[in-house]
Amino acid sequence: MTDNCEAGYEGGGWLAQVKDLVEQDGTPFLCLYLDQKTQRVNFVSDCESQKKLRDSKALTELEDILKSTNEKKTALQFYNHQHEVVSSCHQSQPSKYHKLSWVKNQQICFKGQILPENCYNNLPVEVLRMIFGFLKPTDLRKVLLVSHSWKSVAEEPALWTGFDFPEKSRKSSLMLTKFMRTSLSSKIQHLTLANNESFRFNLTDEHFRQFLSLDLSSISIWDIELTEVSGKLLGKLVSGCEKCTIIEVYKSHCLQDDRNLGSEKLSAIFDEMQNKTKLKSFELIAGVHQTFVGDPRKKIDLTSIPSMILATAFTNIEELFLENLEVDSHQLDALFEFGFVNLSSLGFRGIQVDATRTRNLLESLDNCSRLKRLNLSQVDMREIASQFLARFLNKMISLNIEDIKIESHQFEDIFMAILRGDSAIKHFRMFEISNLSTVSPDVLSKAVNKLESVSFDRRKHVDKHTLTEIQIKEIFRVMSLETNLKSLGMATDQTPVDAYDHIEEVDPEHLAMGLNNLESVRLDFGNEDGRYSFLTTVQLYAFFKQLNMKSKLKTIVREDHPDFHM
Questions:
Q1: Is 430 helix (H, G, I), strand (E, B) or coil?
Q2: Helix (H, G, I), strand (E, B) or coil at 90
Q3: Which own/partner pairs from 100-109 qualify as long-range (CB within 8 Å, at least 24 positions apart)?
Q4: Measured between alpha carbons, how far is 98 from 361 in angstroms, rounded to an integer?
Q5: How many whole angstroms separate alpha carbon 189 and alpha carbon 163?
Q6: Given CA atoms 203, 206, 208, 213 in this order, what sign does their dihedral have?
Q7: How far is 46 from 55, CA to CA, in rounded Å?
Q8: Partners of residue 557 on adjacent β-strands
Q9: Alpha-carbon gap, residue 344 to 374, rounded angstroms
Q10: Which of 188, 326, 381, 565 pairs as cysteine with 301 (C-beta 3.0–4.6 A)?
Q11: Residues 462-490: what's their mean pLDDT?
């Protein structure tokens, strides 16, 4: 029971009777009254009722009523239940937190009073952790010096995400060695080895031995010369992290580049990954710095690496992304049988696979019960049984397919499974799909509106087809009635709705209602030249009119402009 007035207990008064009711009989009680003699508002209640009321607007309304009906409202004081004496410097004010409060007159409030010592040190750990979470790592370095209690909280690894090597340590080998001897070096969780973002001197084995003393969670490597670093040390460093991203950057007309790791060092990394490794996420990507018309896409050549070393390196990986790799048929067979066994997410892009091995790939992945995210490109699905293909793909939560070979009836079976409710897909991205335009508009429109996000080609590619005018119209008509969609495009890469082919042919009311049934929409209004914006004035007027009337939209995004949050 909470009782903020001592009077009334003596002689078994009414407050004593209330206390008996609450504590003995368990009867809820609440009383808010004005003591005319002391001009104090007293609040008496059981703890449970007090908590509920403080979370509601009721006390604010009662506070306003008391102040409006009391003739001496300027002198009205609210009792501070944390102190026995109410100072005259506390005046009543409405509270935005819906509870009785006061605003302190700073000029006289602490006059003649002594502030409690170590008040900040007595804050709960949870509160300190929340406060420190708003600080940058550079500010946390100062917090470590305040006190032992602050230091114990500020040292938690979660607060140091993003802490990197100081600029001085990147300029010379000597400064790096000096920093590695300090306690702050232990706070580094991510190591980036990249031409423009890392060190201005050649790294050697000695530097990598120092890096091995760190408790790294992730490492990124691209476009950096590591010719003076042994493959074994590099492999140990990578294998000791939980996440690794390697991007081999190829420049056009350049057959060899010292800034790439090459097959020898990659083989050493895979060899270390076979042993005890912390790695759970691994990305290996071939990127191109500059291209010319007619240049073939360069790939990372892994054909010299033994099949079983390559396969067993990925056995414990949960999130794997491979893009633009050159592998032979034996390596593919080993990967499908032994490598892809523990995956929850797979990206398999730019790796040429024929119809037979595509079937082997999907049959292997079908045995991965934890696989929920799949990203495929340049595979041939035409010889896969339609029923199996639809069942397997609909087990995914996030599905991204690009430049694949697939029959119309296979695609339609995938969408029919979504309509029947036999699908886990929430996010579906489809790019450069030749037969998508042949899918029934009725089936396609109803299926995509059962998803949370969907992406299509917005303009025609060579020998490819975007959605037809009828398909686009039907998608927005269904969307205007009811939809599960939250956005067009993925959360981190939304599609500008005004850049879709045939979008200008959509009924303005259907478009307005459909877009306002989403949570986020991207409208670029064309580029700087005003091109690629196909929405008509009537459509824009209908959209903004509906936005002003009834809308679920929370965010309107425009590229290269700050997001407008509703």
A1: strand
A2: strand
A3: 100/41, 100/43, 100/59, 100/63, 102/77, 102/78
A4: 59
A5: 7
A6: negative
A7: 15
A8: 522
A9: 9
A10: 326
A11: 87
pLDDT in tens, 199-217: 888 899 999 999 999 999 9
Neighbouring residues of 107: CB distance < 8 A, sequence distance ≥ 6: none
Non-local (6+) Cβ contacts of 403 within 8 A are: 377, 378, 431, 432, 433
Q: Are 497 and 532 in contact (CB under 8 A)?
A: no
**How many of the other CB atoms lie within 10 Å of CB of 316?**
16
SS3 412: helix
Per-residue tokens: 566 = 């509703």
Residue 420, phi-psi category: left (phi > 0), alpha (psi -120 to 50), beta (remainder): alpha
- Cβ neighbours, 10 Å, residue 490: 16
Strand-by-strand arrangement of the 281-290 sheet: 190-194, 218-222, 243-251, 281-290, 319-323, 345-349, 373-377, 398-402, 427-431, 453-455, 487-490, 493-494
- Per-residue model confidence as pLDDT tens digits over 153-185: 888 888 888 888 888 888 899 999 999 998 888
Residue-wise burial string across 535-548, b where 16 or more C-beta atoms lie within 10 A, e elsewhere: bbeebbebbeebbe
Q: Let me know: does 342 contact 320? Beta carbons within 8 Å.
A: no
Rounded to a whole number of angstroms, the CA Rg of the chain reads: 33
Residue holding tokens 């030249």? 529
User: Beta-strand (E) ranges in 291-439?
Assistant: 300-301, 319-323, 325-326, 345-349, 373-377, 398-402, 427-431
* Three-state SS letters, 443-512: HHHHHHCCCCEEECCCCCCCCCCCCCHHHHHHHHHHHHHCCCCCEEEECCEECEHHHCCCHHHCCHHHHH
* Residue tagged 């509270």 (tokens): 95
The answer to whether the CB of 92 falls within 8 A of the CB of 66 is no
* Beta-strand pair 564-565/555-557: antiparallel
Alpha-carbon distance of 336 to 456, in angstroms, equals 29
d(C-alpha 172, C-alpha 37), whole Å: 76
Distance CA 510, CA 514 (A): 6
> Residue 127, class by beta-carbon neighbours within 10 Å (0-12 exposed, 13-18 middle, 19+ buried)?
exposed
pLDDT above 70 (res 138): yes
How far separated are the first and last CA of the chain, in Å rounded?
43
